[in-house]
Design goal:
about 200 residues; cell membrane; Gly_transporter; single chain; globular; mainly alpha; membrane; about 0% strand; about 75% helix; Trimeric intracellular cation channel family protein
């Protein structure tokens, strides 16, 4: 198992926990929570693969189903620690965001797409699963209403690119790229960094 595969599984586990944790807050049953966790974990990567015109990754091996099941078991066993912590969702979401950004970039580059496409696909891999998760639990997607989110993926993608441009070892570049996303997300939440809100006039009818 190579390092990128380990990152992929860790990202799947982290994102699945973030989805399952929110589903539990909405009082979903085990099956519903599993579905939300699975969609959160594979949603972004599925959209990425469809755009890259390759078979969705999770349809080629059952390991992602198993990792999601492990995440559900983790939440069930350690529920009183995981579910009750307000910052648990944020921590696992930030970790998944960083890890999946790198995975998306690597897959795009492996299919000979230019780096700018890789950054877009990395951002999509990291952020789209959370959009689907929030839609399933009937929430306004986090990406549209909170501190810097998708831009953290772009920042991490640029850091990863600069590392490869400067000849940094692939594994080190992957680690730096993922950590850059996670740190940007942590700082954005800590200091409430966000883009200006687009304000429009609402007319009365």
């Amino acid at each position: 198992m190579d390092f990128l595969t380990i990152i992929d599984y860790l990202g799947t586990f982290a994102f699945a926990i973030s989805g399952i944790r929110l589903a539990s807050a909405k009082r979903f049953d085990w099956f519903g929570a599993y579905v939300v966790g699975f969609v959160t974990a594979v949603g972004g990567g599925t959209i990425r693969d469809l755009l890259l015109d390759v078979p969705p990754f999770w349809m080629q091996q059952p390991s992602y189903l198993i990792v999601t099941a492990a995440a559900l078991g983790f939440v069930i066993i350690f529920g009183k620690y995981v579910i009750r912590l307000n910052n648990t969702f944020f921590i696992f979401d930030a970790i998944g965001l960083g890890l999946f950004t790198v995975v998306g970039m690597e897959k795009s580059i492996a299919h000979d797409y230019p780096i700018w496409v890789g950054i877009i696909m990395g951002t999509l891999t990291g952020a789209a699963g959370g959009v689907l998760r929030d839609a399933l639990i009937n929430e306004v997607p986090l990406i549209f209403r909170k501190e810097i989110y998708a831009l953290a993926c772009v920042f991490g993608g640029l850091c990863y690119y600069l590392c490869t441009f400067w000849g940094v070892n692939d594994v080190v570049a992957q680690i730096i790229g993922a950590i850059s996303v996670i740190l940007m997300r942590l700082l954005a939440v800590k200091y409430h960094l966000s883009l200006p809100v687009l304000k429009g006039e609402t007319g009365n009818t």
